[in-house]
Amino acid sequence: LDPAQNVVSLDTWFAQIETEDVAAVQRIFAEMVSGERDTITTDYRMRRFDTGAVRWIHSRGTVVRAERGVP
After folding, report:
1. Which helix (H) or strand (E) segment is 41 a member of?
2. Positive or negative, the Cα torsion across 55, 15, 44, 19?
3. Ramachandran category for residue 14: left, alpha or beta (phi over 0 → left; psi -120 to 50 → alpha)
4. 30 and 45 in contact (C-beta within 8 Å)?
5. Residue 31: CB partners within 8 Å, gap ≥ 6?
6. DSSP 67
7. In whole angstroms, how far apart are CA 47 and each of 13, 19, 50?
């Protein structure tokens, strides 16, 4: 990945998550997009793009939806 690149595709981002954690992170993401949940707090492991070193990520987020309810 080019460090100067400002945008990372969702597929590229998921590919950096540790194999054992991918399913849980994908499930949480799907629940947020579908409207089943509006907030998240989760921990998962992710490989750095530049070195491949594994780091723990603590992620918190809130879905912001447009008028039509689209995230």
Report:
1. strand 39-47
2. negative
3. alpha
4. no
5. 37
6. T
7. 10, 10, 9
Distance, CA of 48 to CA of 62 (rounded, Å): 24
- Name the DSSP class of 69: S
Count of helix runs (H) and strand runs (E) in the chain: 2, 2
Identify the DSSP state of 17.
B
What are the helix (H) ranges across 1-71? 10-15, 19-34
pLDDT tens digits for the chain (71 residues)? 555 666 778 888 899 999 999 999 999 989 988 889 999 999 999 999 889 899 999 999 998 887 776 65
Contact 37, 31 (CB under 8 A): yes
